[in-house]
Automatic annotation (TrEMBL):
Family: Belongs to the Fanconi anemia protein FANCD2 family.
Localization annotation: Nucleus
Compositional bias (Basic residues): 685-698
Lineage: Eukaryota, Metazoa, Chordata, Craniata, Vertebrata
Disordered: annotated segments: 680-736, 1226-1276
Stored PANTHER family: FANCONI ANEMIA GROUP D2 PROTEIN
Record flagged with keyword Ubl conjugation: yes
Domain of life: Eukaryota
Signal peptide range: none
An example Gene Ontology CC term for this record: nuclear body
Basic and acidic residues: bias regions: 727-736
One of the record's GO molecular function terms: DNA polymerase binding
Protein name per UniProt: FA complementation group D2
Gene Ontology BP terms: brain morphogenesis; cellular response to oxidative stress; double-strand break repair involved in meiotic recombination; gamete generation; homologous chromosome pairing at meiosis; interstrand cross-link repair; mitotic intra-S DNA damage checkpoint signaling; neuronal stem cell population maintenance
Length: 1276
């Protein structure tokens, strides 16, 4: 009845006393029951007239403060009334303060009122406050917990059921309001993005949810959202835990915008930043984890698209995500297996590691003991058999990789919830399937050495990962052992028969064989037989029933054998330890004088023989490096020494055999088109035909590890072959005209050294004369390691870290180059993850510190003896060069470890602490647990102590880069920054010996980096620039042609342009970062900034005037480019300062402008010089420079007008002159009567016409501005 009576007051045609009616209604509302108050309040807009809106609004706002249950109807009514914006703002503030205490059901209406009251002027402020006060977790998490508790109860009250259903509905209603608002209100969406972007403290899950919502509803904001997200990821503001909580809390809302979330993930995948790519992968992961079947299907489809894109980083990351999804929810992934199976059509562009991942994913889905997976099993078997039987060699290799990976998954032990007898039956069936599949692969590959080598390597990897059951190993072990023995091992007493081109000898045996029980590796006869078959009767090797034995398979077959034995005997290799010290059938390898007289065929045969021997020794070292017996350690070290000696011999042969193509050592797909850098296309083409199986190569394939595909810096480091002597031989034999080669160009043809081999670094380092007397096999735990062997290990470890820890997007290959070449020779390494590699290397830091200190002492003793000069015999020069190379590699390895970006992940901080503790403990014993800052500081102090013994400029650069990496991890960087600047200056002020090549592009780049480090870390950039330009350069000008500056010996006429470019760039960067300041700043700040600009302009003047002496094209280009940028910075940063400093510091300002005027006049002369010489590389900079100079003229005039000193400005015609000041004669020059630059024109900025060349004098000479001393008298 009350509602019926009240409804009669609605829409009355005439109200006699509206004010009285309003008063009565408000009184009625105040005393009515709650359920009636709601109806009465909502009826107010239909009863009241416009005149009463303000009064009612005030009454309702008071009621809002007193009666919280009426919040929703009151706010609903206030939105319908015509109220003053100021009043609405007060109400909004009132409501905002109650957000934390309102009920969830009231929240949508409250948020709607707040958003609808926003204006363009207060949008950012209101949104920032709203996101700060709104805590949705406070509402959602309790309701989620309550719902879960209700589900556990058998019975529940109806009210509980209502709450269970009502909470999600309220949340959905709230986000619907937010979606509509950000979709149709551009002001609100932009303000929300800006508010999130401005957050510097911890983010909320609500922030991420809003990012996803705006991305899904506002098409125009997508790019802006992507930019904000990427910046937040780079800064570390958005972490995985925040993303997971966002999906956990808001999954009901986010599942509706799943396509947009996947679209954002796809965009992040295209980034070059590894952290951003990983965040994109997390979006896929959590979309699959929290959303329904449809969204899961979309996520898998998007990942499949990434895999098929061909981009290496995208493919790797997408495959990793698919692997993670299988672990996360295997049953859901089985439903989407058909999408993953489609990737099999895109195998052509995949690397071997990617193919392994794909087949592993498919195999897990296929052999998961689930009925729905049977059809995938059939498809997998069909695909593998088809590829194995393919006549196209590439697909056969893919089939081998796929079959071995599939066998590994099939053979993996699984927990089967069934009876014991049933489990045994299944295991026996599995074992039968695995063995039959392996037999199929073996039979399909045995006629091709290349295919057999890949089969052995893949099978060995399978055993190394422990994926084969003991039953399978029992079957395969004896077979592998007997096959290897029959193929490659013969008795020592057996004399090889055949018409060999060289006498056959058993060499490199570590023990004397006095009996007939010894064995020997039958290498030379096998190689000769293969070469004979290639030339004579190639079909013989393909005859059915005849087993092909190729020396190419020696190393991979042995790797398989030793892993089988190690797995069966828990790492004990006594069963095959005879292969460690047994000799090899070779011939005398040392070329001596006969090298020049050998035919090309004989030299190629000898090269192949040495390559195969080296690869055998490498695998032997891989096999026995972890044996603990002192005798075995000594033999391993002897084999390491054999490797170093053989590499020296190989260099000599390769130097006279430039078109030689070595036998393959790595058999995966990435080496299909690899030829050494020194080979020509024509010679490679000639070798394309007539070769057995895997020896066949394309002539037009990309040239693997060449200086073109390596980074320039790495190429410089690898000029030395792994023995470290190539560079030295270049210097010693260059006069005789001999050719030297780098074995780094042949790295694809050497077997990979396992990371376990580096445990040899625990051996000590001794000098050469001690090494001569120590190389015996006495049973002692202390085994000595010589400098050449140490360098061999360090170079290999350095390349491994560079490949594994440096993100792939920073090592992009040139266009049309084979993208897989970067990973050739690292296939075993890639079986480990980056954290596993870091853990292994951290364990080696202690022995590497020992070696570093020993080398430091070596160079310190040299300095004490002869001041570091190596003018002694060749042996001493070789030793010096090897020790310097070891020094450089150690610093490079340290830098690679500490620069690993994985340390930003909290999960790997323990690795960082362990590494820092090793360095810190070298100075003093660590007695208690120290903070990260303490460890960083102690490690920094330890490493900086090595600087006095640095033997080369490049070593100095690596040491400083290493210190910079530690600086990034420090919370107190100031003293460390000063020390780095000091060390960099010492490197620049040191005269480097030992053949530092000043004309080398590599040295130039290193000098550029060192100078940048110095100027970026020094506390006074302007003073440092003035010192170099004002002291060092004049010393250079006054010195002889080939001399250098006495203060900065690295500053020569060849390196001047590098110094000049860096100083100009750093000067511009420094002044650009200086704040312009405001008139409200204190007088002291104005004076400091004015003094700073005086110094900057003085430095600029010194540098610009140097182009009169050094007028080469690079110097002039730098002047044009950075001259314009400096003038622009002067306009933006300095002119506002001069505006309010002119009155109090008139003399200083005028002096500054007059100095700058002379500099800009030189820039004008440079423009004329560029035009008269018609140098397009220079003239393209002229228009922008002249425009900037014109702006400077106008800006100076504006400054003078602002300070009531307009009469001080006058303008004249500036003649076109060259760099030497000579006038450039132009078409109109004879008619010009103006004097030099300031020929007086009117003081009213009257612009006399410039020459036809368009060189408006006001533009170029804009600087005539102030400038006469007479102007001082006229200014106020």
């Amino acid at each position: 009845m009350p509602r019926l009576i009240f409804s009669q007051l609605k829409w009355l045609d005439r109200i006699v006393d509206g004010k009285d009616l309003t008063t009565k209604i408000m009184q009625l509302i105040s005393i009515a029951p709650v359920y009636l108050q709601h109806d009465f309040v909502t009826s107010l807009p239909e009863i009241l007239g416009d005149a009463q809106h303000a009064d009612v609004g005030k009454e309702l706002s008071d009621l809002l403060m007193e009666n919280t249950p009426l919040t929703v109807p009151i706010l609903d009514v206030l939105s319908s009334l015509r109220l003053d914006p100021t009043f609405l703002s007060k109400v909004r503030q009132l409501v905002m303060g109650k957000l934390s205490s309102v009920a969830l059901v009231d929240l949508p209406v409250i948020i709607k009122f707040i958003l609808h009251s926003i204006t363009a002027t207060n949008a950012l402020e209101v949104i920032s406050e709203l996101r700060e006060r709104l805590d949705l977790q406070h509402f959602i998490l309790p309701s989620m917990f309550q719902a879960s508790q209700i589900k556990l109860k058998i019975t529940g009250a109806s009210s509980s059921e209502y709450q269970e259903d009502d909470s999600p509905n309220c949340v959905m209603l709230l986000f619907d309001i937010l979606k509509l608002t950000v979709r149709y209100e551009k002001i609100i969406s932009e303000a929300w993005i800006k508010a999130i972007e401005n957050i510097e403290s911890k983010h909320k899950s609500f922030d991420l949810a809003m990012i996803f919502i705006i991305y899904s509803t506002n098409t125009q904001a997508k790019k802006n959202i992507e930019r904000v997200v990427k910046n937040k990821i780079r800064s570390g503001s958005i972490q995985e835990d925040l993303l997971e909580s966002t999906f956990c809390i808001h999954y009901v809302v986010l599942k509706d915008i799943c396509p947009s979330i996947l679209l954002l993930a796809q965009s992040l995948f295209h980034s070059q930043d590894q952290n951003i790519i990983l965040f994109g992968s997390l979006l896929y992961k959590y979309s699959f984890k929290f959303f329904d079947t449809y969204c899961q299907q979309e996520a898998v489809g998007a990942l499949v698209t990434h895999v098929c894109s061909g981009n290496e980083t995208e493919v790797d990351t997408a495959l990793d995500v698919l692997l993670e999804l299988i672990r996360l929810n295997p049953s859901a992934m089985r439903l989407n297996a058909v999408f993953v199976k489609g990737i099999l059509d895109y195998l052509d562009n995949m690397s071997p590691q990617q193919i392994r991942k794909l087949f592993y994913i498919l195999s897990v889905l296929a052999f998961s003991k689930h009925e729905a997976s049977s059809h995938i099993q059939d498809d997998m078997h069909l695909v593998v058999r088809k590829q194995l039987s393919s006549t196209i060699f590439k697909y056969k290799l893919i089939g081998i990789i796929g079959a071995i990976t599939m066998a590994g998954v099939m053979a993996t032990d699984r927990i089967i919830s069934a009876l014991t007898q049933r489990r045994d039956d299944l295991n026996n069936e599995q074992c039968t399937q695995v063995t039959s599949l392996l037999q199929l692969v073996h039979s399909c590959s045995e006629q091709s050495p290349r295919a057999s080598g890949l089969y052995y390597d893949e099978f060995a990897n399978l055993i190394q990962e422990g994926k084969l059951t003991p039953e399978t190993l029992e079957w395969i072990g004896p077979t592998v052992f007997n096959d290897f023995q029959d193929a490659f091992v013969v008795d020592f007493c057996v004399i090889p028969e055949g018409d060999f081109p060289f006498p056959v000898k058993a060499l490199y045996g570590l023990e004397e064989y006095d009996t007939r029980d010894g064995i020997v590796i039958n290498l030379l006869p096998l190689l000769f037989s293969q070469e004979f078959e290639k030339e004579g009767s190639q079909m013989t090797s393909q005859e059915p029933g005849k087993k092909l034995v190729s020396p190419l398979c020696l190393a991979p077959h042995f790797r398989l054998l030793r892993l089988c034995v190690a797995r069966q005997h828990n790492g004990n290799l006594e069963e095959i330890d005879g292969l460690l010290d047994c000799p090899i059938f070779l011939t005398d390898l040392e070329p001596g004088e006969k090298l020049e007289s050998m035919s090309l065929k004989e030299r190629s045969f000898m090269c192949s023989l040495i390559f195969l021997t080296l690869n055998w020794f490498r695998e032997v070292v891989n096999a026995f490096c972890r044996q603990t017996s002192p005798e075995m350690k000594g033999k391993v070290l002897s084999r390491l020494k054999n490797i170093v000696e053989l590499q020296e011999i190989l260099e000599k042969y390769l130097a006279v055999t430039p078109d030689y193509v070595p036998p393959l050592a790595n058999f995966d797909l990435e080496t299909l088109d690899v030829i050494p850098h020194s080979n020509s296309a024509a010679s490679a083409k000639n070798r394309k035909t007539g070769k057995i199986g895997g020896r066949k190569r394309k002539a037009d394939g990309s040239k693997a590890p060449s200086p073109d595909t390596l980074s320039k810096e790495d190429n410089s480091e690898c000029d030395a072959v792994p023995t470290g002597r190539s560079q030295l031989e270049k210097e010693l034999t260059g006069k005789e005209g001999k050719t030297s080669v780098s074995l780094q160009n042949y790295s694809a043809f050497f077997r990979e050294v396992d990371i376990e081999v580096f445990s040899i670094l625990h051996c000590g380092l001794v000098t050469k004369f001690i090494l001569d007397t120590e190389m015996n096999t006495e049973a002692t735990e202390v085994v000595q390691l010589g400098p050449p062997e140490l360098l061999f290990l360090l170079e290999d470890l350095s390349h491994k870290l560079d490949n594994m820890l440096t993100p792939s997007f920073t090592k992009r290959n040139p266009f049309l180059k084979n993208k897989g070449n970067r990973n050739i020779g690292f296939s075993h390494l890639h079986l480990k993850s980056a954290p596993e590699v870091v853990h292994c290397v951290v364990q080696l830091l202690t022995p590497m510190c020992n070696h570093l200190e020993n080398i430091h002492n070596y160079f310190q003793s040299l300095v004490a003896e002869d001041h570091g000069e190596v003018d002694g015999p060749e042996v001493k020069a070789q030793e010096h060069h090897i020790m310097a190379s070891c020094y450089q590699r150690l610093l490079q390895i340290f830098h690679g470890i500490f620069a690993w970006n994985g340390f930003f992940n909290l999960g790997y901080h323990n690795f960082l602490y362990s590494a820092l503790e090793v360095l810190a403990s070298r100075l003093k014993q660590i007695e208690h647990e120290q903070s990260l800052e303490e460890l960083v500081s102690q490690s920094f102090n330890y490493l900086q102590n090595f600087h006095p013994s640095i033997p080369s400029f490049q070593c100095g650069l690596y040491l400083i880069r290493l210190l910079m990496v530690l600086l990034e991890k420090s919370t107190a960087p100031a003293p460390k920054k000063e020390k780095i600047a000091s060390l960099a200056r010492q490197c620049l002020c040191r005269a480097w010996s030992h053949g530092e090549k000043e004309k080398s592009s590599i040295f130039n780049e290193q000098l550029h980096d060192m100078l940048c480090i110095y100027l970026e870390h020094t506390d006074n950039v302007l003073k440092a620039i003035e010192e170099i330009a004002g002291i060092g350069v004049p010393e250079l000008i006054n010195s002889p042609k080939d001399a250098s500056s006495s203060t900065f010996p690295t500053l020569t006429r060849h390196t001047f342009v590098i110094f000049f470019r860096v100083m100009m760039a750093e000067l511009e960067k420094t002044v650009k970062g200086l704040q312009a300041g405001t008139a409200a700043d204190s007088q002291q700040i104005h004076e400091e900034k004015l003094l700073y600009w005086n110094m900057a302009v003085r430095d600029f003047s010194i540098l610009i005037n140097l182009m009169k002496v050094f007028d080469s094209h690079p110097v002039l280009h730098v002047c044009l480019k950075y001259g314009r940028l400096f003038v622009e910075a002067f306009l933006k940063q300095c002119m506002p300062l001069l505006d309010f400093s002119f009155r109090k510091h008139r003399e200083d300002v005028l002096s500054l402008l007059e100095t700058f005027q002379l500099d800009t006049r030189l820039l004008h002369h440079l423009c004329g010089h560029s035009k008269i010489h018609q140098d397009m590389r220079l003239t393209k900079h002229v228009p922008l420079l002249k425009k900037t100079l014109e702006l400077l003229v106008c800006r100076v005039k504006a400054m003078l007008v602002l300070n009531n000193c307009r009469e001080a400005f006058w303008l004249g015609n500036l003649k076109n002159r060259d760099l030497q000041g000579e006038e450039i004669i132009s078409q109109n020059s004879q008619e010009s009567t103006a004097d030099e630059s300031e020929g007086g024109t009117s003081s009213q900025l009257t612009k006399s016409k410039a020459t036809e060349d368009g060189e408006d004098d006001e533009a170029s000479d804009g600087e005539k501005e102030q400038y006469s001393d007479e102007s001082d008298d006229n200014s106020d």
